[in-house]
Design brief:
150 residues
Length: 150
């Protein structure tokens, strides 16, 4: 990706996500996803890698959904600072929890990749954390009105 592509993407992000709260929530999720992929690159065990790559794909599929929530919230409550609008506080909380859960998912994957010998339960701890990420993204979508409840 060239410099021009980066500039254009930055402008599109500014237009869609603003420069404040919603951009920060999106970028935090993106950084967590990048970190997970960095961890994945260092996994040497083929079996563990195969398990973790399936989760990487599922987590990557959440990024456009997070972007859609953040873009909708930016349209509803434009933000160029970090003040959380009261009527969208629950959406922001769900996005923050999704970002935090993604960071702990990457951390769990890193710890698992450092394990010595066979891991008896496989990537179960990573799977549980990845499921939590999905739950928080789904809640944010529901609260933002992008998905039907239930």
């Amino acid at each position: 990706m060239g410099i021009l592509d980066n500039v254009l993407r930055g402008r599109r992000d500014d237009a869609d996500l603003g420069k404040g709260l919603w951009r920060r929530a999106h970028d935090r999720f993106q950084r967590g996803l990048d970190r997970y992929h960095q961890v994945l690159e260092g996994v040497e065990d083929d079996e563990l890698y195969a398990e973790l790559v399936v989760m990487a794909d599922a987590l990557s599929a959440l990024l456009p959904r997070v972007r859609a929530v953040c873009a909708k919230c930016q349209r509803l409550a434009p933000s160029d600072d970090f003040d959380v609008p009261g009527d969208l506080a629950d959406v922001h909380r769900a996005l923050s929890k999704a970002g935090n859960a993604l960071a702990t998912t990457a951390e769990a994957a890193a710890m698992l990749s450092l394990a010595v010998g066979p891991v008896p339960v496989g990537a179960l701890s990573v799977q549980r954390r990845a499921a939590t990420v999905l739950e928080h993204v789904e809640l944010a979508e529901q609260l933002a009105g992008l998905r039907a409840a239930g």
